[in-house]
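Example (one chain per record):
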Amino acid sequence: MPRPTRRRKPYIVVFCEGESEQAYTDFLKKEFKDVASIKRPSATGLFEEADGKFKKDKAYRDYAEVTDEIWFFFDVETKDIGLWNARMKIIKRLRALRKKPGIKVRLLMTTGCIEYWLMLHYEMYTPPIQTVAEKQRVIERLLSKEPNYQKGDTATTARIAQNYPKAVIHSKQTVLNLLSQGLPGLEDTDERNRWLCQKCLTFSNVYEAIEFLTSLQ
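Predicted structure:
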């Protein structure tokens, strides 16, 4: 009887806006190493960074055919509203780097600051998070839960991230809440993602990445 072939682990490349997103990605890489191969560039950077890497860097360009997913892990802020069309052009180019099936591109978005996503590991709440003062209140609330937190601190971020099952529940609720505000739907579509990016209401959809990874276990 022939031995069953071992399924290849999905190969995922994650582009992060900041050091805290990188630290959280490193947690996911370690936590789900048995079911997925996760790579991230050493430098921060999002859409233009990815476009350049897959055009010019052999370490990315030559692996396009085995790249299953590309993730962008970033904050949604009002200053970025006008960038949607330019970003979509890059997203479409990245999808087309591999044929049948194309590369899946996920936008892992959190309103205002990454600390809101981290706070959802402890509790459900949906404050406004656009001004500097509003973001600072979220950070202070996180510090009340984890006093040692600092941006980019791998150990502290990993300690927070251990609560990801709770964060999945809370963050999914933040997106569900937006249906009453006009969100086109829950499914990961370009139309939905544009709405989330341009409305800048309070939410995090990072749970979608974790649900995908846990589905592989």
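Caption: The CA atoms of residues 138 and 144 lie 10 Å apart.
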